[in-house]
């Protein structure tokens, strides 16, 4: 199976890049399943129902969220109506929506998608991500209950993401980090067959400070004082993420590579 995961969509520029480029990528690369992290797609904080529809219509099979999952208040109700949106597994137990779900890809193949929030350097003490993820993966065995399993680790610390990758090795097809908006260069297949990347980066304008217009972040770093709101950068966006090809019989990764399409970080196709 050919799976594409795209990192955090950042504001209008990120949405526009997904809408313009994903349909062609899906066709040209023969993609069987696409996951997009959309938690910064609306004004850089959260995801609205309308913007979720845009990403899904562009060709995403599933949208994952993150710590800003419900910054846009209409998502509280929209997520109950739209099963293709996944909120963090270890979020509040009373939060609406689901933290894991099985989807149908091409040829009837089944793909599990789950997302978990890290604990290190995050603003709130979320529930243990390791035990939560393990329980879901063990109840959806690769090569049996599902043909592929994707884990989105929305976390600040690279060490915590790496630890999650090793924890899930052999139980997931892909473990990929999101949240920090900076793509890492460590795409690999781990010992037991799980593809891994510490951070997928963002789908946004890289002429920025992690997707935000540069002036206000620079002012705050230099002076320690805020003057204005952060605003998403509006230049041409790069789609950043990871491509993985899996074995349907085992669910293990056969090939993995980082993806950079358009904007300042353009790379070749997979």
Report on this structure:
This protein has a single domain, classed as Purple Acid Phosphatase, chain A, domain 2. The strands form three sheets. A six-stranded mixed beta sheet has the order 5-4-3-1-13-14. The protein contains six helices and 14 strands. It has 270 residues and is an alpha/beta fold.
CATH C-level class? Alpha Beta
How far apart are the termini? 14 Å
What would you call the structural class?
Answer: alpha/beta
Mean pLDDT across all amino acids: 95
CATH superfamily: Metallo-dependent phosphatases
Rg computed from alpha carbons, rounded to a whole number of angstroms: 17 Å
The number of helices is 6
* Second CATH tier, the architecture: 4-Layer Sandwich
β-strand percent reads 15-25%
- What would the principal axes of the Cα set say about the shape? globular
Oligomer: single chain
Helix content: 10-25%
How many domains make up the coordinates?
Answer: 1
- Please give the largest β-sheet: 6 strands, mixed
Order of helices and strands: EEHEHEHEEEHEHEEEEHEE
**Number of strand segments:** 14
Spatial strand sequence of the major β-sheet: 5-4-3-1-13-14
How are the SSEs placed, and which strands pair?
Layout: E1 2-6, E2 8-9, H1 11-28, E3 33-37, H2 49-58, E4 62-64, H3 75-81, E5 85-86, E6 100-104, E7 110-117, H4 129-138, E8 148-154, H5 158-168, E9 174-178, E10 188-189, E11 195-197, E12 202-203, H6 215-223, E13 239-246, E14 253-261
Parallel strand pairs: 1-3, 2-12, 3-4, 4-5, 7-8, 8-9, 9-11
Antiparallel strand pairs: 1-13, 6-7, 10-11, 13-14
Helix pairs in contact: 1-2
């Amino acid at each position: 199976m050919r799976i594409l995961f795209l990192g955090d969509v950042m504001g209008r520029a990120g949405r526009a890049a997904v809408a313009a480029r994903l349909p062609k990528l899906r066709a040209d690369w023969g993609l069987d399943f696409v996951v997009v992290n959309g938690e910064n797609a609306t004004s850089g904080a959260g995801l609205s129902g309308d913007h979720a529809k845009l990403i899904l219509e562009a060709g995403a099979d599933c949208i994952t969220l993150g710590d800003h999952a419900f910054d846009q208040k209409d998502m509280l109700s929209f997520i109950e109506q739209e099963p293709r949106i996944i909120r963090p597994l270890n979020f509040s137990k009373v939060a609406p929506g689901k933290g894991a779900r099985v989807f149908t890809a091409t040829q009837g193949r089944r793909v599990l998608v789950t997302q978990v929030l890290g604990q290190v350097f995050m603003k709130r003490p979320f529930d243990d991500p390791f035990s939560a993820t393990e329980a879901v993966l063990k109840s959806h065995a690769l090569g049996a209950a599902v043909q592929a399993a994707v884990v989105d680790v929305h976390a600040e610390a690279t060490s915590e993401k790496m630890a999650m990758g090793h924890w899930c090795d052999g139980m997931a097809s892909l473990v990929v980090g999101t949240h920090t908006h900076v793509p890492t260069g460590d795409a690999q297949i781990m010992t037991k067959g799980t593809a891994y990347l510490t951070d997928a980066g963002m789908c946004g304008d890289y002429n920025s400070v992690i997707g935000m217009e540069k002036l206000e972040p620079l002012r705050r770093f230099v002076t320690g004082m805020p003057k204005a709101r952060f605003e998403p950068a509006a230049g041409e966006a790069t789609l950043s993420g990871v491509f993985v090809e899996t074995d349907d019989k085992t669910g293990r990764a056969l090939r993995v590579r980082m993806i950079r399409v358009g904007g300042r970080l353009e790379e070749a196709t997979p």
